[in-house]
Design goal:
The complex is a heterodimer of chains A (66) and B (471).
Chain A: H1 3-20, H2 26-42
Chain B: H1 8-17, H2 22-40, E1 43-46, H3 48-63, E2 75-79, H4 107-114, E3 118-123, H5 157-164, E4 170-175, H6 181-187, E5 190-193, E6 213-218, H7 221-231, E7 261-264, H8 277-292, E8 296-299, H9 305-330, H10 337-344, H11 351-372, E9 377-381, H12 406-411, E10 415-422, E11 428-434, H13 440-453
Parallel strand pairs in B: 2-3, 2-4, 7-8, 7-9
Antiparallel strand pairs in B: 1-3, 4-6, 5-6, 5-10, 9-11, 10-11
The chains are: A mainly alpha (66), B alpha/beta (471).
Protein backbone atom coordinates (compact mmCIF):
# COMPACT_ATOMS: atom_id res chain seq x y z
CA UNK A 1 0.00 0.00 0.00
CA UNK A 2 1.43 3.37 -1.02
CA UNK A 3 1.47 6.41 1.23
CA UNK A 4 -1.23 7.87 -1.00
CA UNK A 5 -3.39 4.78 -0.40
CA UNK A 6 -2.78 5.00 3.33
CA UNK A 7 -3.76 8.65 3.33
CA UNK A 8 -6.92 7.76 1.41
CA UNK A 9 -7.82 5.05 3.92
CA UNK A 10 -7.19 7.37 6.85
CA UNK A 11 -9.34 10.06 5.25
CA UNK A 12 -12.12 7.56 4.58
CA UNK A 13 -12.06 6.26 8.14
CA UNK A 14 -12.05 9.79 9.54
CA UNK A 15 -15.03 10.60 7.32
CA UNK A 16 -16.95 7.50 8.44
CA UNK A 17 -16.29 8.31 12.09
CA UNK A 18 -17.46 11.87 11.60
CA UNK A 19 -20.60 10.88 9.68
CA UNK A 20 -21.45 8.36 12.39
CA UNK A 21 -21.01 11.04 15.01
CA UNK A 22 -18.71 8.86 17.07
CA UNK A 23 -15.90 9.85 19.38
CA UNK A 24 -12.94 7.49 19.25
CA UNK A 25 -9.57 7.49 20.92
CA UNK A 26 -6.44 7.98 18.79
CA UNK A 27 -5.60 4.31 19.35
CA UNK A 28 -9.03 3.24 18.13
CA UNK A 29 -8.76 5.48 15.10
CA UNK A 30 -5.37 3.99 14.24
CA UNK A 31 -6.78 0.50 14.66
CA UNK A 32 -9.63 1.22 12.27
CA UNK A 33 -7.24 2.69 9.72
CA UNK A 34 -5.29 -0.58 9.87
CA UNK A 35 -8.39 -2.78 9.89
CA UNK A 36 -10.41 -1.02 7.20
CA UNK A 37 -8.56 -2.40 4.14
CA UNK A 38 -8.75 -5.92 5.62
CA UNK A 39 -12.44 -5.53 6.29
CA UNK A 40 -13.18 -4.19 2.80
CA UNK A 41 -11.13 -6.98 1.24
CA UNK A 42 -13.15 -9.59 3.11
CA UNK A 43 -16.33 -8.23 1.53
CA UNK A 44 -15.27 -9.56 -1.86
CA UNK A 45 -16.63 -12.86 -0.57
CA UNK A 46 -20.10 -11.31 -0.48
CA UNK A 47 -20.07 -10.26 -4.10
CA UNK A 48 -19.86 -13.57 -5.91
CA UNK A 49 -21.69 -14.07 -9.21
CA UNK A 50 -23.93 -16.67 -7.55
CA UNK A 51 -25.45 -13.97 -5.36
CA UNK A 52 -26.25 -11.68 -8.27
CA UNK A 53 -29.87 -12.84 -8.51
CA UNK A 54 -30.33 -14.06 -4.95
CA UNK A 55 -33.05 -12.69 -2.71
CA UNK A 56 -31.73 -11.34 0.59
CA UNK A 57 -32.50 -13.27 3.76
CA UNK A 58 -33.38 -10.11 5.62
CA UNK A 59 -35.02 -11.93 8.52
CA UNK A 60 -33.82 -15.46 8.39
CA UNK A 61 -36.60 -17.99 8.92
CA UNK A 62 -34.94 -21.30 9.66
CA UNK A 63 -37.12 -23.68 7.77
CA UNK A 64 -37.20 -27.45 7.41
CA UNK A 65 -39.79 -27.39 4.63
CA UNK A 66 -37.30 -26.86 1.82
CA UNK B 1 -19.30 -38.43 52.93
CA UNK B 2 -19.61 -38.39 49.19
CA UNK B 3 -19.18 -35.93 46.39
CA UNK B 4 -22.04 -34.04 44.86
CA UNK B 5 -23.64 -35.36 41.69
CA UNK B 6 -21.91 -34.16 38.51
CA UNK B 7 -24.78 -34.41 36.06
CA UNK B 8 -28.46 -33.57 35.94
CA UNK B 9 -29.28 -37.22 35.33
CA UNK B 10 -27.28 -38.31 38.37
CA UNK B 11 -28.78 -35.58 40.56
CA UNK B 12 -32.26 -36.58 39.48
CA UNK B 13 -31.57 -40.16 40.56
CA UNK B 14 -30.27 -38.97 43.93
CA UNK B 15 -33.28 -36.73 44.48
CA UNK B 16 -35.80 -39.42 43.60
CA UNK B 17 -34.08 -42.15 45.59
CA UNK B 18 -33.89 -39.97 48.68
CA UNK B 19 -30.11 -39.98 48.67
CA UNK B 20 -30.18 -36.20 48.84
CA UNK B 21 -32.77 -33.45 49.13
CA UNK B 22 -32.96 -30.49 46.82
CA UNK B 23 -32.32 -28.20 49.77
CA UNK B 24 -29.16 -30.06 50.78
CA UNK B 25 -27.92 -30.16 47.21
CA UNK B 26 -28.62 -26.47 46.70
CA UNK B 27 -27.04 -25.49 49.99
CA UNK B 28 -23.87 -27.40 49.15
CA UNK B 29 -23.68 -25.93 45.65
CA UNK B 30 -24.25 -22.42 46.96
CA UNK B 31 -21.33 -22.96 49.31
CA UNK B 32 -19.23 -23.94 46.31
CA UNK B 33 -20.37 -20.86 44.40
CA UNK B 34 -19.26 -18.52 47.17
CA UNK B 35 -16.01 -20.41 47.73
CA UNK B 36 -15.12 -20.25 44.04
CA UNK B 37 -16.27 -16.73 43.28
CA UNK B 38 -13.01 -14.92 43.97
CA UNK B 39 -10.99 -17.40 41.91
CA UNK B 40 -13.42 -18.00 39.02
CA UNK B 41 -15.69 -14.94 38.96
CA UNK B 42 -18.55 -16.91 37.44
CA UNK B 43 -21.48 -15.01 38.99
CA UNK B 44 -22.64 -11.42 38.88
CA UNK B 45 -25.16 -12.21 41.61
CA UNK B 46 -25.92 -15.36 43.56
CA UNK B 47 -29.64 -15.54 44.36
CA UNK B 48 -29.30 -17.78 47.37
CA UNK B 49 -32.61 -16.96 49.04
CA UNK B 50 -34.64 -17.56 45.90
CA UNK B 51 -32.63 -20.71 45.19
CA UNK B 52 -33.24 -22.15 48.65
CA UNK B 53 -36.93 -21.32 48.38
CA UNK B 54 -37.17 -23.13 45.04
CA UNK B 55 -35.28 -26.09 46.47
CA UNK B 56 -37.62 -26.37 49.45
CA UNK B 57 -40.61 -26.16 47.12
CA UNK B 58 -39.13 -29.01 45.09
CA UNK B 59 -38.63 -31.09 48.23
CA UNK B 60 -42.20 -30.42 49.32
CA UNK B 61 -43.48 -31.46 45.92
CA UNK B 62 -41.39 -34.63 45.95
CA UNK B 63 -42.83 -35.43 49.38
CA UNK B 64 -46.36 -35.02 48.03
CA UNK B 65 -45.64 -37.22 45.04
CA UNK B 66 -45.61 -34.32 42.59
CA UNK B 67 -42.88 -34.63 39.96
CA UNK B 68 -42.53 -31.82 37.47
CA UNK B 69 -39.86 -33.59 35.46
CA UNK B 70 -36.11 -34.07 35.29
CA UNK B 71 -35.20 -30.48 36.15
CA UNK B 72 -37.11 -30.44 39.43
CA UNK B 73 -34.72 -29.56 42.23
CA UNK B 74 -31.77 -29.16 39.85
CA UNK B 75 -29.43 -26.17 40.44
CA UNK B 76 -28.93 -24.16 37.23
CA UNK B 77 -27.45 -20.78 36.35
CA UNK B 78 -28.66 -18.06 33.98
CA UNK B 79 -26.51 -15.88 31.73
CA UNK B 80 -26.91 -12.31 32.87
CA UNK B 81 -28.50 -11.05 29.68
CA UNK B 82 -31.72 -12.93 30.31
CA UNK B 83 -34.34 -11.16 32.38
CA UNK B 84 -35.18 -12.71 35.73
CA UNK B 85 -37.80 -11.45 38.13
CA UNK B 86 -35.64 -12.00 41.21
CA UNK B 87 -32.42 -10.22 40.20
CA UNK B 88 -31.22 -7.33 38.06
CA UNK B 89 -30.03 -7.93 34.51
CA UNK B 90 -26.80 -6.17 33.57
CA UNK B 91 -25.40 -7.77 30.38
CA UNK B 92 -22.13 -7.06 32.24
CA UNK B 93 -22.39 -3.44 31.19
CA UNK B 94 -22.68 0.00 32.74
CA UNK B 95 -24.64 1.03 29.67
CA UNK B 96 -27.74 -1.15 29.96
CA UNK B 97 -30.54 0.79 31.65
CA UNK B 98 -31.28 -0.94 34.99
CA UNK B 99 -34.97 -0.45 34.23
CA UNK B 100 -34.63 -2.89 31.33
CA UNK B 101 -34.47 -5.88 33.62
CA UNK B 102 -37.22 -4.83 36.00
CA UNK B 103 -39.77 -7.15 34.53
CA UNK B 104 -41.05 -10.70 34.59
CA UNK B 105 -38.84 -13.66 33.74
CA UNK B 106 -37.72 -14.17 30.16
CA UNK B 107 -39.74 -16.94 28.54
CA UNK B 108 -36.94 -19.51 28.87
CA UNK B 109 -36.39 -18.62 32.53
CA UNK B 110 -40.10 -18.95 33.26
CA UNK B 111 -40.10 -22.38 31.62
CA UNK B 112 -37.21 -23.52 33.81
CA UNK B 113 -38.93 -22.28 36.97
CA UNK B 114 -42.18 -23.98 35.92
CA UNK B 115 -40.20 -27.22 35.56
CA UNK B 116 -39.03 -26.88 39.16
CA UNK B 117 -35.42 -25.90 38.45
CA UNK B 118 -33.45 -24.13 41.17
CA UNK B 119 -31.95 -20.97 39.71
CA UNK B 120 -28.73 -20.10 41.53
CA UNK B 121 -28.04 -16.67 40.09
CA UNK B 122 -26.95 -14.56 37.15
CA UNK B 123 -23.80 -15.64 35.37
CA UNK B 124 -21.06 -13.39 34.04
CA UNK B 125 -20.67 -12.80 30.31
CA UNK B 126 -18.54 -10.70 27.99
CA UNK B 127 -20.15 -7.25 27.95
CA UNK B 128 -23.25 -7.32 25.76
CA UNK B 129 -22.13 -10.79 24.59
CA UNK B 130 -19.31 -9.45 22.43
CA UNK B 131 -15.69 -8.40 22.71
CA UNK B 132 -13.48 -9.26 25.62
CA UNK B 133 -13.67 -8.39 29.33
CA UNK B 134 -12.34 -5.03 30.46
CA UNK B 135 -11.54 -4.81 34.19
CA UNK B 136 -12.29 -1.09 34.07
CA UNK B 137 -16.02 -1.78 33.81
CA UNK B 138 -15.97 -3.14 37.36
CA UNK B 139 -17.76 -6.41 36.66
CA UNK B 140 -16.35 -9.82 37.60
CA UNK B 141 -14.32 -11.58 34.91
CA UNK B 142 -14.98 -15.30 34.61
CA UNK B 143 -11.92 -17.54 34.52
CA UNK B 144 -11.28 -21.01 33.20
CA UNK B 145 -11.43 -23.63 35.99
CA UNK B 146 -8.78 -25.70 34.19
CA UNK B 147 -6.36 -22.77 34.38
CA UNK B 148 -7.53 -19.45 35.79
CA UNK B 149 -4.91 -17.56 33.78
CA UNK B 150 -6.96 -18.53 30.72
CA UNK B 151 -10.35 -17.48 29.44
CA UNK B 152 -13.28 -19.85 29.76
CA UNK B 153 -14.34 -18.53 26.37
CA UNK B 154 -17.10 -16.13 25.60
CA UNK B 155 -19.43 -14.69 25.66
CA UNK B 156 -21.20 -17.20 27.96
CA UNK B 157 -18.07 -17.25 30.09
CA UNK B 158 -19.76 -17.53 33.48
CA UNK B 159 -22.00 -20.40 32.39
CA UNK B 160 -19.00 -22.26 31.01
CA UNK B 161 -16.93 -21.74 34.14
CA UNK B 162 -19.79 -22.53 36.53
CA UNK B 163 -20.77 -25.80 34.86
CA UNK B 164 -17.15 -26.88 34.45
CA UNK B 165 -16.39 -26.20 38.11
CA UNK B 166 -19.55 -27.86 39.39
CA UNK B 167 -21.09 -24.63 40.67
CA UNK B 168 -24.27 -25.48 38.77
CA UNK B 169 -25.36 -28.66 37.00
CA UNK B 170 -26.31 -26.72 33.89
CA UNK B 171 -27.29 -23.34 32.66
CA UNK B 172 -28.38 -21.11 29.85
CA UNK B 173 -26.12 -19.29 27.45
CA UNK B 174 -26.70 -17.29 24.32
CA UNK B 175 -24.94 -17.77 21.01
CA UNK B 176 -24.66 -15.29 18.13
CA UNK B 177 -21.37 -16.48 16.68
CA UNK B 178 -20.16 -19.17 19.06
CA UNK B 179 -20.90 -17.82 22.54
CA UNK B 180 -22.23 -21.14 23.83
CA UNK B 181 -19.98 -23.48 21.88
CA UNK B 182 -16.75 -21.56 22.51
CA UNK B 183 -17.01 -21.75 26.31
CA UNK B 184 -18.19 -25.35 26.04
CA UNK B 185 -15.06 -26.14 24.05
CA UNK B 186 -12.63 -24.23 26.27
CA UNK B 187 -14.15 -25.60 29.49
CA UNK B 188 -14.64 -29.20 28.36
CA UNK B 189 -18.41 -29.28 28.76
CA UNK B 190 -21.33 -29.63 26.35
CA UNK B 191 -23.34 -26.78 24.84
CA UNK B 192 -25.93 -26.46 22.09
CA UNK B 193 -26.67 -23.58 19.77
CA UNK B 194 -30.20 -24.45 18.68
CA UNK B 195 -31.79 -23.97 15.29
CA UNK B 196 -32.65 -20.29 14.91
CA UNK B 197 -36.32 -20.00 15.85
CA UNK B 198 -36.43 -23.14 17.99
CA UNK B 199 -36.05 -21.39 21.35
CA UNK B 200 -37.61 -18.09 22.39
CA UNK B 201 -35.23 -15.18 22.90
CA UNK B 202 -37.93 -13.02 24.42
CA UNK B 203 -36.41 -11.31 27.46
CA UNK B 204 -32.84 -11.52 26.18
CA UNK B 205 -30.68 -8.46 25.56
CA UNK B 206 -30.09 -8.60 21.80
CA UNK B 207 -26.76 -8.68 20.00
CA UNK B 208 -27.48 -9.76 16.44
CA UNK B 209 -31.21 -10.00 15.87
CA UNK B 210 -31.10 -12.57 13.08
CA UNK B 211 -28.30 -14.62 14.63
CA UNK B 212 -29.08 -14.72 18.37
CA UNK B 213 -30.04 -18.02 19.98
CA UNK B 214 -30.55 -19.19 23.56
CA UNK B 215 -29.35 -22.66 24.44
CA UNK B 216 -28.34 -25.13 27.14
CA UNK B 217 -24.90 -25.77 28.61
CA UNK B 218 -24.20 -28.75 30.86
CA UNK B 219 -21.63 -31.47 31.47
CA UNK B 220 -23.19 -33.95 29.04
CA UNK B 221 -25.13 -33.88 25.80
CA UNK B 222 -27.92 -35.76 27.55
CA UNK B 223 -28.17 -33.07 30.23
CA UNK B 224 -28.31 -30.44 27.50
CA UNK B 225 -31.13 -32.39 25.86
CA UNK B 226 -33.03 -32.42 29.16
CA UNK B 227 -32.78 -28.63 29.48
CA UNK B 228 -33.60 -28.21 25.81
CA UNK B 229 -36.77 -30.31 26.18
CA UNK B 230 -37.96 -27.69 28.65
CA UNK B 231 -36.99 -24.46 26.90
CA UNK B 232 -37.70 -25.27 23.23
CA UNK B 233 -40.88 -24.33 21.46
CA UNK B 234 -42.92 -21.62 19.79
CA UNK B 235 -43.45 -18.40 21.72
CA UNK B 236 -45.96 -15.81 20.48
CA UNK B 237 -43.85 -13.19 22.28
CA UNK B 238 -40.88 -13.88 19.99
CA UNK B 239 -41.65 -13.33 16.29
CA UNK B 240 -38.55 -15.31 15.36
CA UNK B 241 -39.75 -18.57 16.88
CA UNK B 242 -41.14 -21.10 14.45
CA UNK B 243 -44.42 -22.84 15.18
CA UNK B 244 -43.43 -26.43 14.50
CA UNK B 245 -43.77 -29.47 16.76
CA UNK B 246 -40.92 -30.11 19.19
CA UNK B 247 -40.14 -33.82 19.50
CA UNK B 248 -38.60 -35.26 22.64
CA UNK B 249 -34.86 -34.65 22.66
CA UNK B 250 -34.15 -37.51 25.04
CA UNK B 251 -36.38 -40.24 23.62
CA UNK B 252 -33.92 -41.08 20.84
CA UNK B 253 -30.79 -41.18 22.98
CA UNK B 254 -30.17 -44.89 22.49
CA UNK B 255 -26.40 -44.73 22.77
CA UNK B 256 -25.82 -46.09 19.29
CA UNK B 257 -24.15 -44.67 16.24
CA UNK B 258 -25.14 -47.50 13.93
CA UNK B 259 -26.49 -46.12 10.70
CA UNK B 260 -25.57 -42.53 11.47
CA UNK B 261 -24.07 -40.74 8.47
CA UNK B 262 -21.31 -38.31 9.42
CA UNK B 263 -19.97 -35.72 6.99
CA UNK B 264 -16.50 -34.22 7.27
CA UNK B 265 -16.13 -30.83 5.55
CA UNK B 266 -12.35 -30.76 5.03
CA UNK B 267 -12.11 -27.44 3.25
CA UNK B 268 -12.04 -24.44 5.57
CA UNK B 269 -13.04 -26.34 8.75
CA UNK B 270 -9.98 -28.61 8.76
CA UNK B 271 -7.68 -26.75 6.41
CA UNK B 272 -7.37 -23.30 7.98
CA UNK B 273 -3.72 -22.45 8.74
CA UNK B 274 -4.88 -21.13 12.11
CA UNK B 275 -6.22 -24.57 13.12
CA UNK B 276 -4.00 -26.02 15.83
CA UNK B 277 -2.57 -29.42 14.82
CA UNK B 278 -3.42 -30.94 18.19
CA UNK B 279 -7.05 -29.81 17.92
CA UNK B 280 -7.34 -31.19 14.41
CA UNK B 281 -5.84 -34.53 15.42
CA UNK B 282 -8.16 -34.94 18.42
CA UNK B 283 -11.30 -34.15 16.41
CA UNK B 284 -10.30 -36.58 13.66
CA UNK B 285 -9.54 -39.20 16.31
CA UNK B 286 -13.06 -38.69 17.64
CA UNK B 287 -14.42 -39.25 14.14
CA UNK B 288 -12.45 -42.51 13.96
CA UNK B 289 -13.97 -43.54 17.29
CA UNK B 290 -17.45 -42.93 15.95
CA UNK B 291 -16.67 -44.81 12.75
CA UNK B 292 -15.53 -47.80 14.78
CA UNK B 293 -18.80 -47.57 16.71
CA UNK B 294 -20.83 -48.00 13.54
CA UNK B 295 -21.17 -44.58 11.98
CA UNK B 296 -20.60 -44.06 8.28
CA UNK B 297 -18.11 -41.28 7.59
CA UNK B 298 -17.89 -39.44 4.28
CA UNK B 299 -16.13 -36.31 3.17
CA UNK B 300 -18.50 -33.56 2.13
CA UNK B 301 -18.10 -30.38 0.14
CA UNK B 302 -19.47 -27.22 1.74
CA UNK B 303 -18.96 -24.39 -0.71
CA UNK B 304 -18.86 -20.70 0.19
CA UNK B 305 -17.41 -21.11 3.70
CA UNK B 306 -15.32 -17.93 3.36
CA UNK B 307 -18.40 -16.10 2.17
CA UNK B 308 -20.43 -17.46 5.07
CA UNK B 309 -17.83 -16.21 7.54
CA UNK B 310 -17.72 -12.78 5.91
CA UNK B 311 -21.52 -12.56 5.84
CA UNK B 312 -21.81 -13.55 9.50
CA UNK B 313 -19.24 -10.96 10.56
CA UNK B 314 -20.92 -8.30 8.47
CA UNK B 315 -24.37 -9.16 9.80
CA UNK B 316 -23.41 -9.24 13.47
CA UNK B 317 -21.53 -5.95 13.05
CA UNK B 318 -24.50 -4.22 11.45
CA UNK B 319 -27.16 -5.58 13.79
CA UNK B 320 -25.15 -4.95 16.95
CA UNK B 321 -24.18 -1.47 15.77
CA UNK B 322 -27.84 -0.62 15.13
CA UNK B 323 -28.74 -1.62 18.68
CA UNK B 324 -25.80 0.24 20.25
CA UNK B 325 -25.49 3.26 17.96
CA UNK B 326 -27.05 5.72 20.39
CA UNK B 327 -25.11 4.40 23.36
CA UNK B 328 -21.82 4.50 21.48
CA UNK B 329 -22.47 8.08 20.47
CA UNK B 330 -23.73 9.38 23.80
CA UNK B 331 -21.73 7.44 26.39
CA UNK B 332 -18.79 5.72 24.67
CA UNK B 333 -16.67 5.84 27.81
CA UNK B 334 -19.17 3.62 29.63
CA UNK B 335 -18.46 0.67 27.33
CA UNK B 336 -15.49 -1.57 27.99
CA UNK B 337 -12.65 -0.81 25.59
CA UNK B 338 -12.83 -4.14 23.76
CA UNK B 339 -16.62 -4.08 23.49
CA UNK B 340 -16.57 -0.55 22.10
CA UNK B 341 -13.98 -1.48 19.50
CA UNK B 342 -15.98 -4.46 18.29
CA UNK B 343 -19.27 -2.56 18.17
CA UNK B 344 -17.78 0.40 16.30
CA UNK B 345 -16.93 -1.89 13.40
CA UNK B 346 -20.51 -1.40 12.28
CA UNK B 347 -19.83 2.17 11.18
CA UNK B 348 -17.36 0.95 8.56
CA UNK B 349 -19.87 -0.92 6.39
CA UNK B 350 -22.32 0.34 3.78
CA UNK B 351 -26.02 -0.43 3.42
CA UNK B 352 -25.21 -2.36 0.25
CA UNK B 353 -22.72 -4.49 2.19
CA UNK B 354 -25.51 -5.53 4.54
CA UNK B 355 -27.97 -6.46 1.81
CA UNK B 356 -25.24 -8.25 -0.11
CA UNK B 357 -24.44 -10.26 3.02
CA UNK B 358 -28.08 -11.31 3.22
CA UNK B 359 -28.11 -12.29 -0.46
CA UNK B 360 -25.00 -14.38 0.07
CA UNK B 361 -26.68 -15.82 3.13
CA UNK B 362 -29.45 -17.15 0.91
CA UNK B 363 -26.92 -18.73 -1.44
CA UNK B 364 -25.00 -20.36 1.42
CA UNK B 365 -28.14 -21.61 3.15
CA UNK B 366 -29.46 -23.22 -0.03
CA UNK B 367 -26.12 -24.87 -0.84
CA UNK B 368 -25.58 -26.20 2.67
CA UNK B 369 -29.16 -27.41 3.03
CA UNK B 370 -28.66 -29.41 -0.15
CA UNK B 371 -25.29 -30.74 1.05
CA UNK B 372 -26.79 -31.85 4.36
CA UNK B 373 -29.21 -34.21 2.59
CA UNK B 374 -26.35 -36.68 2.14
CA UNK B 375 -25.56 -36.92 5.84
CA UNK B 376 -27.18 -36.74 9.27
CA UNK B 377 -24.57 -34.55 10.94
CA UNK B 378 -21.32 -32.80 10.20
CA UNK B 379 -18.29 -32.91 12.48
CA UNK B 380 -15.86 -30.00 12.76
CA UNK B 381 -13.58 -28.59 15.44
CA UNK B 382 -15.39 -26.07 17.62
CA UNK B 383 -12.46 -23.71 18.07
CA UNK B 384 -9.23 -23.40 16.16
CA UNK B 385 -7.17 -23.69 19.35
CA UNK B 386 -7.29 -24.34 23.09
CA UNK B 387 -8.27 -21.58 25.52
CA UNK B 388 -5.81 -18.68 25.30
CA UNK B 389 -4.42 -16.85 28.30
CA UNK B 390 -5.87 -13.47 29.18
CA UNK B 391 -2.40 -12.06 28.73
CA UNK B 392 -2.11 -13.24 25.13
CA UNK B 393 -5.39 -11.78 23.90
CA UNK B 394 -5.04 -9.86 20.65
CA UNK B 395 -8.26 -8.15 19.59
CA UNK B 396 -6.91 -7.40 16.14
CA UNK B 397 -6.92 -11.10 15.25
CA UNK B 398 -10.70 -11.28 15.52
CA UNK B 399 -10.98 -9.88 11.99
CA UNK B 400 -8.75 -12.51 10.43
CA UNK B 401 -9.18 -15.73 12.42
CA UNK B 402 -11.65 -18.06 10.68
CA UNK B 403 -14.83 -18.73 12.62
CA UNK B 404 -15.82 -22.38 12.81
CA UNK B 405 -18.95 -21.53 14.79
CA UNK B 406 -20.38 -18.27 13.45
CA UNK B 407 -21.19 -19.71 10.04
CA UNK B 408 -23.81 -21.94 11.65
CA UNK B 409 -25.52 -18.90 13.14
CA UNK B 410 -25.64 -17.44 9.65
CA UNK B 411 -27.55 -20.41 8.26
CA UNK B 412 -29.44 -21.14 11.48
CA UNK B 413 -28.38 -24.79 11.78
CA UNK B 414 -28.15 -26.42 15.24
CA UNK B 415 -24.64 -27.18 16.52
CA UNK B 416 -23.51 -28.96 19.67
CA UNK B 417 -20.01 -28.78 21.13
CA UNK B 418 -18.73 -31.71 23.17
CA UNK B 419 -15.34 -32.40 24.69
CA UNK B 420 -13.27 -34.79 22.56
CA UNK B 421 -9.99 -34.77 24.43
CA UNK B 422 -7.26 -32.71 26.02
CA UNK B 423 -4.14 -30.99 24.81
CA UNK B 424 -0.70 -32.03 26.00
CA UNK B 425 -0.98 -29.09 28.39
CA UNK B 426 -4.18 -30.51 29.89
CA UNK B 427 -6.74 -28.19 28.35
CA UNK B 428 -10.02 -29.36 26.78
CA UNK B 429 -10.62 -29.60 23.04
CA UNK B 430 -14.11 -29.29 21.58
CA UNK B 431 -15.79 -31.06 18.68
CA UNK B 432 -18.80 -29.56 16.94
CA UNK B 433 -21.73 -31.72 15.81
CA UNK B 434 -23.89 -29.87 13.29
CA UNK B 435 -27.32 -30.83 11.99
CA UNK B 436 -29.84 -29.53 9.47
CA UNK B 437 -32.51 -27.12 10.79
CA UNK B 438 -34.75 -28.65 13.48
CA UNK B 439 -32.75 -31.88 13.71
CA UNK B 440 -31.59 -31.39 17.29
CA UNK B 441 -32.67 -34.98 18.18
CA UNK B 442 -30.01 -36.52 15.91
CA UNK B 443 -27.42 -33.96 17.04
CA UNK B 444 -28.04 -34.89 20.67
CA UNK B 445 -28.10 -38.59 19.79
CA UNK B 446 -24.64 -38.41 18.21
CA UNK B 447 -23.26 -36.34 21.10
CA UNK B 448 -24.71 -38.68 23.70
CA UNK B 449 -23.58 -41.82 21.90
CA UNK B 450 -20.04 -40.44 21.63
CA UNK B 451 -20.07 -39.72 25.36
CA UNK B 452 -21.28 -43.26 26.07
CA UNK B 453 -18.07 -44.65 24.55
CA UNK B 454 -15.64 -42.02 25.82
CA UNK B 455 -14.97 -40.39 29.17
CA UNK B 456 -13.56 -36.99 28.23
CA UNK B 457 -16.75 -35.25 29.32
CA UNK B 458 -16.67 -36.50 32.90
CA UNK B 459 -13.14 -35.29 33.62
CA UNK B 460 -13.17 -32.28 35.89
CA UNK B 461 -10.48 -29.87 37.01
CA UNK B 462 -8.97 -30.22 40.46
CA UNK B 463 -10.44 -27.66 42.82
CA UNK B 464 -10.14 -26.72 46.44
CA UNK B 465 -13.75 -25.66 46.82
CA UNK B 466 -15.55 -28.89 45.92
CA UNK B 467 -17.87 -29.10 48.91
CA UNK B 468 -18.96 -32.54 49.94
CA UNK B 469 -22.28 -33.53 51.35
CA UNK B 470 -23.30 -35.98 54.02
CA UNK B 471 -24.95 -38.93 52.31
Amino acid sequence: MTKHDKDDVAATVDHLIAVAGMTVTPEERDYFVRAYPILRASLRHLRLPEARDAEPALMYPADNRR
Amino acid sequence: MSELPRTIVEAGQWLRSGKITAATLTEAMLARCYAAQERLGAFNVITDEAAMMAARTADADFARGIDRGPLMGIPLGIKDLLATSDAPTTANSRVLDPAWGQRADATVVRKLRDAGAVLMGKLVLHEFAIGWPDPATGFPIARNPWDPTRTPGGSSSGTGAAVCAGLALGGLGSDTGGSIRGPASYCGISGLKPTFGRVSKEGAVPLGYSLDTIGPMARTARDCAIIFDTIAGYDPADPCTVNVPVPSMTAGLDGTLAGVRIGIPRDYFFSAPELDAEVKAMVLAAVDTMREAGATVVEIDLPYSESAAAAQRMTISAEAYAYHEQGLREQPEQYGMHTRLRLLHGMLYTAADFVQAQRMRSVVRDAWTTAMRAVDVLITPTSTAIAPTFESFDGTKVDTTPTLTGVWNLVGFPALSVNCGFSATGLPIGMQIVGAPFTEPIVFRVGDAYQQITDWHIRVPETDYAAEVTA
